[in-house]
Design goal:
Number of helices: 3
Distance between the termini: 63 Å
Number of strands: 0
Radius of gyration: 24 Å
Length: 113
Amino acid sequence: MAARILPVVKLATKVTIAGGALYVACDSGLLGSGEQGSVALEKAKAAIPPAIEEWMKYFGLEAQLPTIPKIEFSPVQAWNSGVRVAISSLSEAPTKANEYTNHGLQYLKDLTK
């Protein structure tokens, strides 16, 4: 009986964790526009170091964390760049597939000579 329930409990746990992660991502604006993602990134940058320090005190760890490097990163620009690359790759896919097929056929013809 327990052997039948265990897979269901494991699946329910995984679905709950995935649903919670999706809820947090939607609620914080990570799945919204580029501006919302940028705001969420700034909030995370502000919240993570104090949280890590609090956990280190809770567990009794006294390590000095390195400072977070300043990175000039624009999620909006990165998103737009990623979209351009993806669309470009999709538009070239039929041509590339044809090229690779022709190279493969030519290779097979050369092998059979």
